[in-house]
From TrEMBL, chain A:
Coiled coil: none annotated. SUPFAM superfamilies: ABC transporter transmembrane region, P-loop containing nucleoside triphosphate hydrolases. This is ABC transporter ATP-binding protein. Its main location: membrane. PROSITE patterns: ABC_TM1F, ABC_TRANSPORTER_1, ABC_TRANSPORTER_2. It comes from the Bacteria. The keyword RNA-binding does not apply. Keywords: ATP-binding, Cell membrane, Membrane, Nucleotide-binding, Transmembrane, Transmembrane helix, Transport. Residues 334-569 form the ABC transporter domain. The lineage of its organism: Bacteria, Bacillati, Bacillota, Tissierellia, Tissierellales.
Automatic annotation (TrEMBL), chain B:
This is ABC transporter ATP-binding protein. CDD domains: ABC_6TM_Tm288_like, ABCC_Glucan_exporter_like. The chain crosses the membrane at residues 20-41, 53-80, 138-158, 164-181. Pfam families: ABC_membrane, ABC_tran. Keywords: ATP-binding, Cell membrane, Membrane, Nucleotide-binding, Transmembrane, Transmembrane helix, Transport. Coiled coil: none annotated. It comes from the Bacteria. It is a multi-pass membrane protein. Its main location: membrane. PANTHER family: ATP-BINDING CASSETTE SUB-FAMILY B MEMBER 10, MITOCHONDRIAL (PTHR43394:SF1), ATP-DEPENDENT PERMEASE MDL1, MITOCHONDRIAL (PTHR43394). Residues 339-573 form the ABC transporter domain. Residues 21-305 form the ABC transmembrane type-1 domain.
Amino acid sequence: MFKLAVFLKPYKKECIIGPAFKLLEAILELLLPTIIALIINNGVANHDTNYVLKMGGLMLLMAILGFCSSMICQYYAARASQGFGTTLRNTLFKHISSFSHSEIDTFGTSSLINRITNDVNQLQLAVAMLIRLVIRAPFICIGAIIMAMILDFKLSLIFLAVTPIFAIILYFVISKSSPLYRKYQKKLDKMGLILRENLSGVRVIRAFARTKNEKQRFYAANDDLTESAINVGKISALLNPMTSFVMNVAIIAILWVAGFHVNTGRLSHGEIIAFVNYITQILLALMVVSNLVIIFTRASASADRINELLAITTSIKDNTEFLTNIVNNNTPSIQFTDVSFAYNNTGDMALENISITIHPGETIGLIGSTGSGKSTFTNLIPRFYDATKGNIFVDGINVKDYKLNELRNKIGIVPQNAVLFTGTIAENIRWGKQNATDEEIIIAAKIAQADEFISKLPDGYNTQVSRGGLNFSGGQKQRLTIARAVVSKPDILILDDSASALDFATDAALRKAINDISKNMTVIIVSQRVNTIKEVDKIIVLDNKHIVGTGTHKELMDNCKVYKEICLSQFSNEEASI
Amino acid sequence: MNKNILKRTLKYIENYKVYVFGSFIAAFLSVVSSLIGPMLIGKSIDHMIGVDAVNFTLLFKTLIILALIYGLGNLFTWLLTYLTNWISYKTVNDMRHQLFDKISILPLKFYDSHPHGDTISRFINDIDTVSDGMLHGLSTLLTAMVTIIGAIGFMLYISPIMTIIVIFSAPASFLIARFIANRSQQMFRNQAKSLGKLNDYVEEIISGQKIVTAFNYEDRSFEKFKKINNTLYNSGVKSQFYGSLSGPTTRLVNNITYAIIGIIGSTLAILGKITVGEISSFLIYSNLFAKPFNEITGIFTQIQAAAASAQRIFHILDLPPERPDAIDAININHSLGKIDFNNVSFSYNPDNPLITNFNLNVKPGTRIAIVGKTGAGKTTLVNLLMRFYDVNKGSISIDGIDINTITRDSLRSNFGMVLQDTWLFSGTIQDNISYGKPDATDEEIIAAAKAADAHSFIQCLPHGYNTFISDDGGNLSQGQKQLLTIARVMLVDPPMLILDEATSNIDTRTEINIQRAFLKMVEGRTSFVIAHRLSTIREADLILVLDNGNIVESGTHSQLLESGGYYERLYNSQFAHS
């Protein structure tokens, strides 16, 4: 938990000034009774009305001063705690941005979101409490103990004897409740997951008339969460009464022993009253401390979850230096040398012994059945994953030697899943090139065959895209993602089965447009439609993790059995041989 | 507004009347014992009259009583905390329960237009805030009420005049607190809103992480996140600061009251109206009286935040639900498959009419294929048929029965639907396949998987049918996911089928096998196939060509090819040479 203290560093000033003013307020408040005592001793005893008024005025002044310092404390507490949370969220977000897909899969989206919001909120609360209370409570505690010791050292030993018991109680409650808090946050993740699934899968759920079952599933998660909350509440509810009981026992013991001291004349009445008063003050301060402990236990569960996230570094290490690479015409654009890849350690390869050379300006078709490794092949080029074995070169340089930014800037990718983001159409296309001019955007949209429908929209390129592109049809989304990829005129363009939702007329027009711009562009088209790739320079046929054929349509029809099967599944014999 | 929120929240607590009553009793007893405690301490001090004059028998007796009182007091404090914990967790459990019930009867429009991340934030962060507010609010309010009444009693006993001053100061601090509360309410609303926005953005970016990295968008998304985070910071500092002001202000009022009582009391003492001892007792009780007000205002921040969050929760609860099934709605068990669209008009928003006066009569067992450009209204027909959306005008009937008079569940269970967007939930493959028929036997599941051509790849997975699917099937390829959703429908074996671009993500060799299964399945059943891959629809009994929500051509494959219209052009574009 204390690892996270670094995030408080920028708020050092707030962390010092806040508690300092809180302390000032506490001192002023502690002084008020003393002044009343002075008024009674000097004013009332001497019938001095003037003195009463003068000291009364002083008290009013102190009240206002206390108010001001308390305001200052609250202000700095708010700034420090919110600032702390904001910095932490920024760091977490940035950190998560560096994760590769495999890390995101391990945590799950809903857990990541919870950690970045809910867990940070818990810590924020803890920091605010820290600043407001952490100085004041121990100050009163220690002050009162010292005062008690001065009054009667022997009697104060009773109090000291009680301290370890207090520590044991604290230890007991913390050790019991902190795993429970962790469990609670975990169950919160679980509930978030079910929620997410229900929000995104509503059509399927309703189509199968499974609303009732989903309700049961959610209720179960909800009840489970509540049970955890109540369990942890049961234990933390013990802290206050137990602390207070220990202190009460101490008071009784002190009164009993004090009886003997008074009997022998070692202690006066007034001193006993003072002693009991101090103990009461200590008790009140300890109550505050125990409440703090509960807040901190919960916060430390959250801190663990955050640290867990921060401790994970991405498996894809970035190279920090830019490379100056000399490309001549003979340098292959993309080269795989004996590449194998597995998504996890279980040994199930997704690609095996792939070697291929692709030259600049070539258009490559990649075909193969579902699960044959097509997407995996394309994922390795921009280094979304690192090859398990073998090497991949882009423009003659190993992808691992590139700065990630530089590598990915060379590549325009259109993913299988058409994902768009909140913002306007133009903003979405600008993902591909931050400083793209309006003309460039329109050109890109024209290539992607998207200009036609965009210009028909009332707001044209400024039309808002809602989350995930829900307000566009599948085909429209795909065309926008294509525009996004071509706007930067990348050296390498990867189309991962990204025209599947386009009707044939649009698909044909798209291919023609891409053909027109790709004289110097290496294009990789992944597709299941022979038609889409029939005309390309080279077709790679993947089957069961291996390359089973490369060549033109004609060559493959003659010598690749798998390719021929694919063709025949799509065309009649005569059509296929065209 | 504020009052309504409070009233509504209290309604939830009503269900736990017995527990509220119990915690009230516990609060009463714990406060009473805390008021008696000081009295007994005073008594026991009175038993120590002086040197050699300590009455140990009486002292012992008093201390035993004191111990009992303390013990009981702490027991009841624990009970109070436990019960309030219980009540508030149960209450938010009910709220979540209700929220979920609500979203499951909300029309699809809600899912399509509300950001999912924000909805999740309402379920998690807002509910959390409400439970915190209630937890502290309940126990504080209960003890405060008892303490205030008790303290007033003791004060009246000492000096009615000074009591009046104290009692007047209480509403003053209350008014100030309320003023601040009203001001800060808006700020808390802003804070909750910013948090929802942040949640939403995080959700969007994390789930689109692959695209983010592909386009080197990390820095830009971080900039945007920082901006949202900064808004959250600003609204957070403001709400925390203004919210926490009520504490210092009420303390100010208290301290001023304290000073005034000191002055008046001293003056009264100088005039001989009261004794010095009475002033000090009075001050103690006036402190006791002020303490609960301090505590109440102290938790105002939390209550304010809770009220703002509660409002966001109530907002969803108040959304108009989907029109419920009519009371006399009928169940259709196994439809014949006769479907009629009569003059159907529909649009997602009134400014943009999509389907107007659509007519179609489908005889049982007809295989209908729908083709058309993206955005022509193909998917909308499915939305209407499944009653995801209701028609604006006209009617749709099944077996001659208007679908509006059929229960939604039974209507939908007559259709088997496969969509292009696959949806899987976290669970095993087996669970996912048996989603529509939870009591299916292993044999049935395997048979369905075989029919969907999914059996072979499932067997290759490390745990076969028990392989756990994480986060929306992240570990499966798009095509594999689609095969699972097809198997899901195969298992249910419904009388009518809807395939909305069901095979566009699957390679054609696999598709041929699925087609075969489909053909077997659609035999004698009414089916709708939406596709752009024309090879999948050649066999249909009736092909509809849709444009702008209207049928522009219809007929069989050969009829349409002969007529030489849009379909013919579309079909021939398959062989267009780029």
